[in-house]
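Quick review question:
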């Protein structure tokens, strides 16, 4: 299991690499461009194969591919927060991949498993164990209204799971006040490469709304790089 520099979780677990969404600011694609060859060699060794051309092509092009070597990683003994898909969006996973992942998660109720997607309707397709937190990534931009509606419906379907927003990168001041009523946690972060922090007034607005609604808020370190005098807020929901 990989320790991570992502400050709102302890480990990352990436049984799948690759995404078809095509966000221009995607950090995962940039990481994959640097490290796909190492991952390819690692997976070949695990599979005890000399070559696998479909695997090589998918890794090189950042198309979704299941990695057995990552899936089989040993989980930590101590209860931990594990981000399941930092190198993919589950919208593009094959259903049998997800079913294998969820079956494994059931074996580790002591851990909290966090998912993120830009397509919240995908949460309606599976039965997630209660120790899964289901996150939706928004940038705060206009044009995301339909996905907010999807989120509202998915939240009702999966009402036993904790839902959260990740505003990262936070690129515009589209307010989510009406939708914040349905969630327990908000993460706010800056665009990392190239670095682009959200405007200070946007952060202050999010702080105001989450305080008013008693929602936990986590402001990432990369925001304080631009605004070191902001109050340090790194909260987690009550069951952690």
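Suggested answer, residue by residue:
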């Amino acid at each position: 299991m990989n320790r991570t520099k992502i400050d709102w979780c302890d480990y990352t677990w990436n049984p799948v690499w690759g995404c078809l969404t095509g966000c221009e600011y995607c950090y995962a694609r940039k990481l994959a461009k640097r490290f796909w060859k190492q991952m390819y060699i690692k997976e070949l060794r695990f599979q005890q194969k000399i070559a696998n051309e479909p695997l090589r092509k998918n890794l090189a092009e950042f198309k979704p591919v299941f990695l057995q070597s990552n899936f089989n990683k040993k989980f930590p003994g101590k209860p931990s927060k594990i981000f399941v898909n930092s190198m993919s969006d589950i919208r593009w996973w094959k259903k049998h991949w997800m079913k294998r992942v969820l079956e494994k998660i059931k074996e580790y109720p002591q851990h909290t498993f966090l998912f993120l997607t830009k397509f919240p309707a995908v949460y309606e397709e599976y039965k997630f164990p209660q120790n899964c937190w289901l996150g939706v990534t928004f940038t705060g931009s206009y044009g995301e209204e339909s996905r907010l509606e999807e989120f509202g419906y998915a939240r009702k379907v999966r009402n036993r799971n904790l839902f959260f927003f990740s505003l990262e990168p936070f690129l515009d001041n589209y307010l989510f006040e009406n939708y914040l009523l349905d969630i327990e946690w908000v993460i706010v972060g800056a665009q990392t490469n190239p670095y682009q922090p959200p405007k200070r007034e946007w952060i202050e607005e999010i702080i105001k709304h989450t305080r008013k609604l008693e929602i936990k808020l986590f402001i990432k370190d990369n925001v304080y790089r631009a605004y070191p005098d902001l109050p340090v807020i790194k909260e987690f929901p009550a069951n952690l």
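Why it works: The two ends are 20 Å apart (CA to CA). The chain has eight helices and twelve strands.
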